[in-house]
């Protein structure tokens, strides 16, 4: 028999109102500025796309307030590639607290 599991408090999920992939405006080397689970506000720089041939750089900015729930880990991007998945919530701070609780419990 398995031992009785310890009692856990009921889970109350936080549902995103919407999500959107932020895409690369240019082709080049991706230098991320945020991490998975980060809270972002509209206009925050998510990454810099550097052109390896010139000094040209393109900024990838958050289109709205939310939390990063998905991220490409590829070092290179082509124009239009999906880089960050941003989720919008009614209460971004409540959702952020849930992400932090999850990370603390699961050691993420």
Helical content stands at: 10-25%
Inertia-based shape: elongated
Q: Regarding quaternary structure, how should these chains be classified?
A: single chain
The number of helical segments is: 1
Mean pLDDT equals 89
Give the DSSP E fraction (strand runs of 2 or more residues).
35-45%
Structural class: mainly beta
What is the element string, with H for helices and E for strands? EEEEEEEEH
CATH superfamily: RNA polymerase II/Efflux pump adaptor protein, barrel-sandwich hybrid domain
What characterizes the major β-sheet? 4 strands, antiparallel
Second rung of CATH, namely the architecture = Beta Barrel
Determine the CATH topology: OB fold (Dihydrolipoamide Acetyltransferase, E2P)
Count of discrete domains:
1
State the low-pLDDT regions, or none: none
- Spatial order of the strands forming the largest sheet: 1-8-6-3
Radius of gyration: 17 Å
End-to-end Cα distance: 30 Å
Which short descriptors sum up this protein?
single chain, OB fold (Dihydrolipoamide Acetyltransferase, E2P), 8 strands
Q: What does this 3D model show about the protein?
A:
- With 108 residues, this protein is mainly beta.
- It has a single domain, classed as RNA polymerase II/Efflux pump adaptor protein, barrel-sandwich hybrid domain (OB fold (Dihydrolipoamide Acetyltransferase, E2P)).
- The chain contains 1 helix and 8 strands.
- The strands form 2 sheets. A 4-stranded antiparallel β-sheet has the order 1-8-6-3. It has a 4-stranded antiparallel β-sheet with strand order 5-4-2-7, with no helix packed on it.
- Strand 4 and strand 5 (57-61) form a beta hairpin.
- The two termini are 30 Å apart.
